[in-house]
Amino acid sequence: MFEDIKNKKVLITGANGGIGECMAKLFVDYGACLGLHCWGNKKEAVKLLKEIRKKSGRAEIFEADFLDSRARGGLVKSFIRKFGGIDVLMNNAGAIFDYEYFSKLKEESWDNTFALNVKTPFYLSGEAFNYMKEHGGGRIINISSANVKYGGSARSFHYVAAKSALDTLTLGFSREGAKYNILVNSIRCGLIDTPMRKKIKGYNEEDFKKRINLVPLKRAGQPIDIARMALFLASECGNFITGEIFTVAGGD
Q1: CA 100 to CA 157: how far, in whole Å?
Q2: SS3 of 89, please?
Q3: Strands 245-248, 59-63: parallel, antiparallel or unpaired by DSSP?
Q4: pLDDT tier at 201 (50, 70, 90 boundaries)?
Q5: Mind listing the pLDDT tens digit for each residue in 122-142?
Q6: Residue 81 Cα distances to 32, 89, 129, 141, 167, angstroms
Q7: CA–CA gap between residue 50 and residue 224 (Å, rounded)
């Protein structure tokens, strides 16, 4: 099903852990050429790069702080220069800045959450779009959140609002991209067991366990569940799919 992934040039943001790392491992198994974006925790990215190269896969690390417009602005251009093009942009990098009750949330946390989860995908997609438009098309896949359906909790309004905005970008880019064979879709992740939650200020394992009980399948998802959907959409299986939002959330 996924033979056409071979030699596809795929840029994955936030590839140094969790879902991004899992995507990279899965895509390289099918012969994709990978750009591994990371910021902080470069050690994990280097470890992943070595693992990929041990499989004779082609990959390079690209560092960029997405809260810095100059660093963000050069990422897609650097990837294209290195690989000679871009076939798939995976807007995976995301985070919640402070898991705090909304009345106590600092404005800086709101701004940073939107800068990372909305502003960054917008500008990266624009850069990739301009290239794809002149080179026969491509794919843009945005990693969103199933919590958009519910509005999130009183401590995650800002993050969920950002992901809702990201889904709107998916719809807008897909309509404009259709005439150029640029297919754009979102994957709404449910409760996925990744290290990300341990980095959220104010979050704890008790919250995670309580949240699992609300999932109809009564378990958290794994990064591979999201990576497989991304592979499907990036491959020829997704040739007639655009402007769609897929929920991978165990029935949530």
Answers
A1: 9
A2: strand
A3: unpaired
A4: low
A5: 999 999 999 999 999 999 999
A6: 17, 15, 16, 21, 29
A7: 20
CA torsion sign, 131 to 6 to 186 to 205? negative
The string of pLDDT tens digits covering residues 42-77 is: 899 999 999 999 999 999 999 999 999 988 999 999
CATH code for the domain in which residue 72 is found:
3.40.50.720
pLDDT bracket for residue 202 (50, 70, 90): low
Long-range contact set of residues 44-47: C-beta below 8 Å, sequence gap at least 24: 44/16, 44/17, 45/15, 45/16
Domain that holds residue 167: 3-248
Question: pTM for the complete prediction?
Answer: 0.95
Q: Look-up: residue for tokens 């702080």?
A: 65
17: left (phi over 0), alpha (psi -120 to 50) or beta: left
**Tally of domains in the chain:** 1
Name the residue among 162, 232, 150, 235 with its Cα closest to residue 191: 150
> Among the options 30, 99, 131, 159, which is catalytic?
159
Exposed (0-12), middle (13-18) or buried (19+): which is 97, by Cβ within 10 Å?
buried
- SS3 state at 168: helix
Indicate if 99 belongs to the active site.
no
